[in-house]
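Human: Respectfully, please carefully check these tokens:
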Amino acid sequence: LGLNDYLIDRYIKYLSNLRLTQIGYKPLYPDITDNPMKWIDQFRTINDTKTDFFQAKPQTYAKRSELKW
């Protein structure tokens, strides 16, 4: 897997194009049309809801259970 400068650069350009087209502008990097890091999408959605990871309330933690010794 591994991250490198090339992948990160292409991913940032991909996101730039995506956001620009979402607000009605033309992409800055027309040669970049596919997400180079598709695997990262699973981290962008928590419980099938797109959220900012640092602002999302954790909903998948298990409840504390009592330990018996």
In short: The helical segments are 5-22, 41-44. The mean pLDDT is 79. Residues 5-22 form the longest helix (18 residues).
